[in-house]
Design brief:
The chain has 228 residues and is α/β, with parallel strands linked by helices. It folds into 2 domains: 119 residues, Response regulator (Rossmann fold), CATH 3.40.50.2300; 102 residues, Winged helix-like DNA-binding domain superfamily/Winged helix DNA-binding domain (Arc Repressor Mutant, subunit A, Orthogonal Bundle), CATH 1.10.10. A hairpin with a 2-residue loop joins β6 and β7. α2 runs parallel beside α3 and α6 crosses α8. The longest helix is centred in the middle third of the chain and has 16 residues. Bound molecules: calcium ion.
Length: 228
């Protein structure tokens, strides 16, 4: 899951980035509205955490421009405690939810999970054959048994499961797994895929490599058909 944080207060931004990265999200940060506007127009994110009081372009303007482009990216706005009018204006302009500052990180994480769930239209989670993934709990199970996965492996599995049966390129994986300031080489992606593959093997779920194209997660039946 890839999140963009648009926040000009460095303390709040750092806290947010740290917490969200720890929970396995790829996080990018911009500190003014113009950069936020450019980033969401250019790249694919799963969620925008948007401070309304931003320099260069207000958060409200970023939001209005986003919705004018018919972009339905989920947006969580951050407003001041006494900013009732801001909140109303933000929701009217198409924000999905809001949080008033100061907020507790667990609350933010709960709101994010709810928004992402709404966005994917999968309240209970995703399943591919015997493999299930709960976005609420951030755990994966194979034949009902909890899989022991690192944060990166889990993030990788999430991307592959959301696009099960389709090809996901290495570039897409790198983009979904890391923020701008992180480096993940395509060799590292290969290592994560290799580890994940071994953990999924007992359930017959396969990650096939399409040379030069990318990877595809296949449920057991589909894998058998592909072999024949
Ligand atoms: Ca601000």
């Amino acid at each position: 899951m890839r999140i963009l944080i648009a926040e000009d207060d460095p303390v709040i931004a750092d806290g947010l980035m740290h917490a969200l990265k720890k929970s396995g999200c790829a996080v990018d940060h911009v500190s003014n509205g113009a950069d936020a506007d450019a980033a969401v127009a250019r790249e694919q994110f799963d969620l925008l955490v948007l401070d309304l009081g931003l320099p260069k372009m207000s958060g409200l303007e970023v939001l209005r421009r986003l919705r004018t482009r018919k972009n339905s990216l989920p947006v969580l706005i951050l407003t001041a405690q006494d900013g009732l009018e801001d909140r109303v204006a933000g929701l009217d302009a198409g924000a999905d939810d809001y949080l008033t500052k100061p907020f507790a990180l667990p609350e933010l994480e709960a709101r994010i999970r709810a928004l992402v769930r709404r966005g994917t239209g999968n309240p209970t989670g995703i399943s591919v054959g015997p493999l299930t993934y709960s976005q609420t709990e951030r755990v994966a199970r194979l034949n009902g048994e909890l899989l022991d996965l690192s944060a990166r492996e889990l993030a990788l599995l999430e991307v592959l499961m959301l696009r099960a049966g389709r090809v996901v390129s290495k570039d897409q994986l790198v983009e979904q797994l890391c923020g701008w300031d992180e480096e993940v080489s395509s060799n590292a992606i290969e290592v994560y895929v290799h580890r994940l593959r071994k953990k999924l093997e007992p359930g017959g779920v396969r990650i096939t490599t399409l040379r030069g194209l990318g990877y595809s997660l296949q449920k057991p039946a589909a894998a058998t058909a592909a072999d024949g």
